UniProtKB/TrEMBL annotation:
It comes from the Eukaryota. Residues 78-300 form the Protein kinase domain. InterPro entries: Kinase-like_dom_sf (IPR011009), Prot_kinase_dom (IPR000719), Ser-Thr/Tyr_kinase_cat_dom (IPR001245), Ser/Thr_kinase_AS (IPR008271), Ser/Thr_Kinases-Pseudokinases (IPR051681). This is Protein kinase domain-containing protein.
Amino acid sequence: MSEAGGGKLAEILAKKRAAREKAREEDNVSISRNASSNVDQNESEDDERRSLSHTSGSYEHSERSRTGGFVNMSLSQVEDLTRVAQGGLGILYQGIWRGTVVAVKKPVDPRVANDPALKEDFRREVEILSEIRHPNVVLLMGACLQGTGLCIVLEWCQGGSLYDVLHRRRVDMNNHQRVKIARGVACGLAFLHTASPAIIHRDLKTQNILLDETLSAPKLCDFGLAIRLSDSYVTNAQAGTPSYMAPELYRGEACSLASDVYAFGIVLSEIFSQELPFAALELSEIREKEGDGGWEAGGL
Ligand SMILES: Nc1ncnc2c1ncn2[C@@H]1O[C@H](COP(=O)(O)OP(=O)(O)O)[C@@H](O)[C@H]1O
Ligand SMILES: [Mg+2]
């Protein structure tokens, strides 16, 4: 961190310390324990009051194994928000939360706080991420699912996305580094697929793989389309990003773990060739080749 950044951080920390002391005096930090699936029920005016409460999984044994829980926080607790990237669903900011540099994902359009479908994507992302603890999956630190302060707070991944590293910054990596990244992605994906019930990411691509500052420890992110492979979630709605979508998805068939494995194959080819997948083709051509007849030998 730069000296200026360090000074600023010290100032923020001092402010935070004072606020903490005050809060301790007033003893107003409440700890509530609700199932995360119920978080939405109490949308309300007292968002702010509850901003320091902890929402976690039910303590009944059977539920506990499935519900990780997350820290229910308020966007107003994050300081120094700086916009750094934009994806399909959210704008990504860097900020400082309780003295720690974090990534904050907010909806692209603040009005979507009132859009049930988009809210559901955010809720699903939080719910699924809160159940996963793995070195190759981005760490969910907190979230706010109420009101207009809708946000997801994640660990900050200094290296940015694998897409940026490969295609924008065009970092010249050796094969050892590339293998390490590929292996990390495989480990993260295997961890999702061996969950019970299994989790299908459905949008695996280099934009959704983050890296640390050494560019060697990848972390899967963006679980907005992720689903569990259980009866209630089986879907054949087309979802994902065209270049990474398996042929069966173009044919309207249900997604499966294999659809993620297909996307992983595309990611592998991207890691080792450092070329954009299907760069020479138009979207319609990708659809045509994938959906109708599959690829001819050597097509990839
Ligand atoms: N934790 C993070 N640390 C650093 N950059 C991140 C982090 N999370 C996301 N990003 C950046 O923000 C972009 C968009 O985030 P993502 O979660 O994929 O949102 P969307 O659902 O809108 O695609 C990513 O491609 C990446 O460049
Ligand atoms: Mg994304």
